[in-house]
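Q: Could you fold this chain for me?
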Amino acid sequence: MSTTSLPASDRAPRLREALIAAAFTADGLLERLGAPAYAALARSETVPAFRATRGNSPLDTLVRLFLLQRPVPAAAAAAALPLEECVEDGWVVQEDDLVAATVDVRPYGGPEGQDWFIVSDLGCAVGGAGGVGSHEEGVVLGVGGASTTLAGITVRKPVASALDLGTGSGIQALHAAQHATRVTATDVNPRALEFTRLTLALSGAAPADLRTGSLFEPVGTETYDLIVSNPPFVISPGARLTYRDGGMGGDDLCRTLVQQAGDRLNEGGYAQFLANWQHVEGEEWQDRVRSWVPDGCDAWIVQREVQDITQYAELWLRDSGDHRADPAVYTERYEAWLDEFEARSTKAVGFGWITLRKSAAAAAGTPSLVAEEWPHAVEQPLGSAVEAHFARQDYLREHDDAALLAAHFTLAEEVVQEQVGLPGAEDPEHVVLRQHRGMRRATKVDAVGAGFAGVCDGSLPAGRILDAIAQLMAEDPVLLRDRTPQAIRLLVEEGFIDPVR
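A: Sure. Below is the predicted structure, expressed as structure tokens.
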């Protein structure tokens, strides 16, 4: 990691123009490298990209300079960049006839096709030239899977104010700048704020209000319409690495972050986090994380993955390069992780998403607190699906069973029906409704549920549909009306049918 001062951003627009002119963009890289070499970069494998850039074009030069972090001839650099300015501003250094990058500059495609660039420490862009191993204290990473996951699940409606807490290299602040009038970005690491400044400037985004400090301390009592954070959530013995270790015991950092977010949200505002949480002996993980939710907020908690304590320790020991250290040192550090988990009665660690929304209903004492496990594939971006989840919770809180039976519904887009049973059987063993968008859920339904969903086109109230089904199935319509509202609630809650508002 370089300890020298970071580049100046004043002339970043000139550098941006040069990068785009050379097609040093996400689309340009895919076209130049080809899909296999492009995918290999994401696995920290650089040989295919090096072989694909043996030409002398400006794009070949920029890939080798900023992505592969190899020195390039000064003449080639001058053909690709405003070289004198880049040397003066500190983006590159020149020694004799060779030019080397001082930072990692990585093309990143915005959600609407924008050409963005994420700036981070050399060798520390996830999937970059150096991979993720052997990081030093204070290092600033580039874009990775966690970053893109959070960006994808964030609600993207226009807001007056947004806070990116623990901004790192500024990826979330960059996204927020597209739909927030004012963006504040904080980090305990001052170098991270400098990288955020570079990322925003080189991407052509408006500057953010950059503040140094831990958790919500830098913003005091200020409130926001959107709060996002990819915090240092790793549950570790100590705080060796700022970018991943929160410095609090167990999952206390994530708990504190969630608990304190409620007071910093405006009415109707969202706070969205990635987090780890402990699975403790004798305690349901859902109860543990639901207890973090502050008063006045609804919550949707989704557990995406669970690792036992040995898998978890090995993952993060590899992340920090400890597996390449002296075997005795590796053993000592591995033991420290297991000692930490044993002391806290932790049997596994969960990873997932936590979304809070401040609402009047929650403040009045009827919060919606949904905690679920969903390890299956989803369709990103999910921001609109997150917003729709809370809208459905509002609807269900406002409608009792009688109101549901009087309401009209439509089948959600791209929901299909699957019949499961033995070949040749007259009737299926069960029917499954499956979504092909958003969370891509699937749910078993009985014949009534399948028939009800199939005819929901908004023209008839639910009660009338059930009366018709009762007649077809020779059932008592009163009994059918009595037992079906709970099934309708489930179909609404999981997004299989939409209320006609």
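A (continued): Residues 327-343 form the longest helix (17 residues).
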